[in-house]
Amino acid sequence: MTTLIKLEIVRSLRNKKFLFFSVIYPPMLYLIIAGGAGSKPIPGMTLDMPLYFMVAMAAFGAMTAVLIGNSEAIAKEREKGWVRQLRLTALPGRGYVAAKMGASATVSLPSIVLVMLVAATVKGVRLEAWQWIAILVATWLGSFVFAALGVAIGYLASGDAVRPIAMMIYFVLAFLGGLWMPLTILPQWVQNIAEWLPTHAYAALGTAIEGGHAPDVKDLAVLAGYLLVFAGGAGWLYRKDTRTA
């Protein structure tokens, strides 16, 4: 499994298109959204735009790396027969799923770090040292939820269909979860839905730390629940695909 993780990381780092959209695009988007924003608090919140969107875009970038990258890579590997070759090795199904999640989550680290660096240097975001570290760790660990979802989508769809399916899920979760705009300015029905979405709970980890307190237990429980569902679904789809092959 360790060998597969190393292979996946090296392969991802060689993919220039993947690196642009997962590493360069999120900080660029952060500058576009928060570049001209001042330090006035967002309506209904105690955070200003640079603070809020630092966490939102870091989460958005991590999602790009682990969800889109994972789903497309797995669908292509299935079509090319690479997964069938791996089944001939001693690697168990759970090891394959864990390796895919671990490799993609590792590659998401540069995106998170770069967004935070841009926020600090360009927008002058200032936090305590423990807050920077806690946001980085929380955002990285939370990305495992979407890494598991990416694996599941990769086994759910064919190579031709995986991109539109992954993109649709990706954009819907990002919008309804409040990654593109604060939920406080959206209709109440959107806020009610967002409370139970993994993207809202994901971003809430960082915004809670920015506010100087620990993440809410409900948000942690929501993420843990989705992780179990997505990882379990990915494992089941892997076994189903094995039986079909």
UniProtKB/TrEMBL annotation:
<dbReference type="InterPro" id="IPR013525">
    <property type="entry name" value="ABC2_TM"/>
</dbReference>
<feature type="domain" description="ABC-2 type transporter transmembrane">
    <location>
        <begin position="52"/>
        <end position="209"/>
    </location>
</feature>
<feature type="transmembrane region" description="Helical">
    <location>
        <begin position="51"/>
        <end position="75"/>
    </location>
</feature>
<feature type="transmembrane region" description="Helical">
    <location>
        <begin position="132"/>
        <end position="157"/>
    </location>
</feature>
<feature type="transmembrane region" description="Helical">
    <location>
        <begin position="18"/>
        <end position="39"/>
    </location>
</feature>
<keyword id="KW-0812">Transmembrane</keyword>
<feature type="transmembrane region" description="Helical">
    <location>
        <begin position="220"/>
        <end position="238"/>
    </location>
</feature>
<keyword id="KW-0472">Membrane</keyword>
<keyword id="KW-0046">Antibiotic resistance</keyword>
<dbReference type="InterPro" id="IPR000412">
    <property type="entry name" value="ABC_2_transport"/>
</dbReference>
<protein>
    <submittedName>
        <fullName>ABC transporter permease</fullName>
    </submittedName>
</protein>
<feature type="transmembrane region" description="Helical">
    <location>
        <begin position="169"/>
        <end position="190"/>
    </location>
</feature>
<feature type="transmembrane region" description="Helical">
    <location>
        <begin position="96"/>
        <end position="120"/>
    </location>
</feature>
<keyword id="KW-1133">Transmembrane helix</keyword>
<dbReference type="InterPro" id="IPR051784">
    <property type="entry name" value="Nod_factor_ABC_transporter"/>
</dbReference>
<dbReference type="Pfam" id="PF12698">
    <property type="entry name" value="ABC2_membrane_3"/>
</dbReference>
